Give the backbone structure.
Amino acid sequence: MDVDVLIVGAGPAGIVSSIELAKRGLKVVVIDEYYKPGGRLLGQLYEDPNLPKENNLWDGKVIASKLTEEAVALGVTILCETTAWKIEEQFIVYITDTTVKEIHTKAIILATGAIEKALPVKGWTKVGAISVGAAQTFTNLHNVKVGSNVVFVGIDPLSISVALEMKHAGINVLGMFLPAPSMLVSEKSNPKITLETLALASNLAPNKLFRIFGKFVKGKISNLVLSMLKFNLIKINGIPIYLRKAVTEINGKRKVESVTIKKLSVKGQINRDQEKTLYVNTVCLSGGLLPLVDSSQLVNCEMVDIPKLGGIVPLHNQFLKTTIDGVYVAGNITGIEGAKVAMAQGKLAALSLLYDLQLVEQDEVIEAFESVEVARIESPLQFYPEIKIGRQIMKDKWEEFQGVRGVVN
Amino acid sequence: MKRKEIPYKDLKSDKVSFIFNDITVTGVRGQPIAVALMSNGIYTIRHCEVTGEPRGIYCGIGHCYECRATVNGIPSKRTCLTLIEEGMIVSSDTDISYGAE
Ligand SMILES: Cc1cc2nc3c(=O)[nH]c(=O)nc-3n(C[C@H](O)[C@H](O)[C@H](O)COP(=O)(O)OP(=O)(O)OC[C@H]3O[C@@H](n4cnc5c(N)ncnc54)[C@H](O)[C@@H]3O)c2cc1C
Ligand code: FES
């Protein structure tokens, strides 16, 4: 199969890219390993305070299906249950589809999104211990209850929003706790860091949920505030958030039957004396998100580690070009942000590519670039609070790299 | 190729029955196996080949392989991604050579 552009990943970033490219007459194919297009949009369902009040439901399923219809109507081919296993230069892409075995393409956009970090609390392999992403997908996309009595381990903007969605779906959410500290889990077990992260997120996200945490950001979060948290329980829509308690073990013979809870000191140390057992049948684990970058290694992109963006990501410029000519990136592969940013980046990557093919003017690329900034401000959910600094670090690293290569940007 | 050019559609209407370890389970067309099982109160999909402990879904979107099962004779299919079909045979037997446990 011969195409102009191959896009890996049919999430919001990939589909929006495909629409922009197809609108300008390019032949585009999108591949995705899932059984339907939409990526992580499919699980999203919440009220977005930045949308007009009468119509403020952000229903990712509906958005995904509209975007997909638009792309297909423009002639985009979407191959589901398909992934790339080898990419040769300029470019021959070998895919797992049984009929189309290879795709010859002039350019590639990588839009593979994010994965969840594991949260290995003792007992986490038991039936009934699931990731927060599974909880979100099963609740909102499949409309199936993952359990009746649920606790969350890991307190962050994503887990809080999923807990609210589950409560809304009629599931009894008994509380949210931190994970017990271990070699693998340290920052996530620290009440102070957790509160600071939530407070920073609240500063950027103007919704009610995070305003509750926003009040802590005025002045430095002191140990006094945290000591008070022991007595003043924070509740969001009736869900208790225990910033000073950790789940130390998930118990149950054949499946989850209970969790063991211990108190945490202000610094995140376990108080060994007191423990409590809470009877639940489901535990949702939230370890945070990482960019999914294995596809960029298939094309030998230069990689950089920028923790403020979420981890190791392909080096790219502000217009989403990577170090390999003809390869662009968009969405969470560039750093963890919400769906609106992913969509805006999808457009930017497409326009950046079109500019390189001399099919659009520079103004349009600049405009798309600015839309990403707007989307960032309008995002109700912020995963990494210092994302803007992360983006600046990326810009500096790109310039440094160009300097080494002796190329003028 | 035709098969996979999916204009997104939600076909949440008709019922589909399949076999899971000798019992008949009914789900809704368009559901992955793990979803249909869970809506029937079945959370355990297989047992760990080494320890014998039960296992169910973990990530729900195809990344962790915890939910694998044998589907129509093909081992190690991820049940969170594989859609149910009428008369499909799903069993907890897994290929011991697969995955690190
Ligand atoms: C569990 C989870 C929950 C989230 N919840 C929210 C939320 O509530 N609100 C919010 O704003 N953001 C949320 N996000 C962030 C989310 O990543 C963005 O909203 C947005 O979906 C990112 O878009 P994307 O197009 O970059 O990636 P995705 O939406 O993740 O789409 C990437 C697609 O690429 C496919 N893919 C990956 N690798 C390959 C490969 N090698 N070959 C073929 N296909 C591949 C995947 O199957 C997927 O469909 C969540 C992320 C995760 C992981
Ligand atoms: S639950 Fe992780 S692959 Fe199916």
